[in-house]
Amino acid sequence: MDDIKDWLLLLRLPAITCIQLQRLLNVFGSPAGILRAQAKELRHAGLGQEMIHHLQDSECQSIEKDITWLNHPEHYFIPFTDDRYPVRLKEIPEPPPVLFVKGNPETLSSIQLGIVGSRNPSHTGKQNARMFAGKMAQLGITVTSGLASGIDYFSHAGALDHNGRTIAVLGNGPDLIYPRHHAGLAERIASDGAVISEFVPGTPPLAMNFPRRNRIISGLSVGILVVEAAHKSGSLITAKHALEQGREVFAVPGSIHNPLARGCHSLIKQGAKLVESYEDILEELNINIRCVEKPACKSEPDRRLYLDTDHKLLLQYITDDPVSIDELVSYTGLTVAAVSSMLLTLEIQGVIAEAAGGCYTKRMMPI
């Protein structure tokens, strides 16, 4: 706990940057070493007099709020030096010195796709976010986003709809949920995934925090999918971070008359991968569908499909002729939610294919 307290004292210093803190750790070896250093040593390490004064008075910093938060179950403090700190995030130019985590810290090292976009998306944008997130979740890929309204919300929800894992990166302290009406969503995310922040408890959701939040979303991920974004959008900042960090950038195209498609079109012009289906993402990332986040794959995978009664009933009405979800609901008597979920499963398995107008056709006969 003493080591954690030393970290917290450093984090509470006003105006200290990630780069300064990393430089100090390189020189003095540990938070305790920094706090014990003499003024002359700190000056030699490149700190100005004001920061030296704050360091020498660091015991005056209140960390009670931080300790209170950390004393709750499933709350974790993961500094850069911790083995649980995600390797992928360590590689970015300015990694956060620490992460406050609520949930499952092991999720941080899973294969992740960041999904971001407009806070005020179209109906199609919402559907696309939910669909892509759901398909990634079904494949065992963690969906990472920023818990904001709009595309972020539907990305998290899409993963949860299919019992997948998702990570929410906050632009404020870990004890606050912004926007507040996403508190229930945050609880669901933390149940198997994680809600994380680099900011100390009590930090408000200031505008300047969100670009910093965005670099973590991209830093944790193997790639970023921009679903819908205006020409000047915060999502483009995340894409910019991704490019700087050597991550893949994907963009969903839209109508030339839709202002929310212009950001995606701009990214595509700059070399982002145009995405029409989840296969486009997997192909670019060279991810083996059968092996993603699953137990060890067999050398000869079992290709037989074992379908329950409802899936077999649904398949009776999917032929070579396109059929809509509404028609399938009418034919089978199943709910829209049930049909949608089963269609997603069957499409992932290669049994059916999506046709124009949101319809489906048969692709292969199950064995």
Description:
- By secondary structure, the chain is α/β, with parallel strands linked by helices.
- It has helices at residues 2-11, 18-28, 31-36, 39-44, 49-56, 64-70, 87-90, 123-138, 151-161, 183-192, 209-220, 234-244, 262-269, 278-285, 309-315, 325-332, 336-348, and strands spanning 75-79, 98-103, 112-116, 142-145, 166-169, 194-197, 223-226, 248-251, 273-274, 352-354, 360-362.
- The chain folds into 3 domains: 1-61; 103-291, Rossmann fold (3-Layer(aba) Sandwich); 309-362, Orthogonal Bundle (Arc Repressor Mutant, subunit A).
- Helix content is 43%, strand content 12%.
- A 9-stranded mixed β-sheet has the order 1-2-6-5-4-3-7-8-9, with helices on both faces. It has a two-stranded antiparallel sheet with strand order 10-11.
- Helix 8 runs parallel beside helix 9 (151-161) and helix 11 crosses helix 12 (234-244).
- The radius of gyration is 23 Å and the shape is elongated.
- The N and C termini lie far apart (57 Å).
What is the highest CATH level, the class of the largest domain?
Alpha Beta
Order of helices and strands: HHHHHHEHEEHEHEHEHEHEHEHHHHEE
Distance, first to last CA: 57 Å
Query: Could you give the count of β-strands?
Result: 11
Mean pLDDT: 87
Shape: elongated
- The assigned structural class equals alpha/beta
CATH architecture of the largest domain: 3-Layer(aba) Sandwich
Strands ordered across the widest β-sheet: 1-2-6-5-4-3-7-8-9
Question: What Rg do the Cα atoms give?
Answer: 23 Å
Number of helices: 17
Can you tell me the residue ranges where pLDDT is under 50 for at least 5 consecutive residues? 290-304
At CATH level 3, the topology of the largest domain is: Rossmann fold
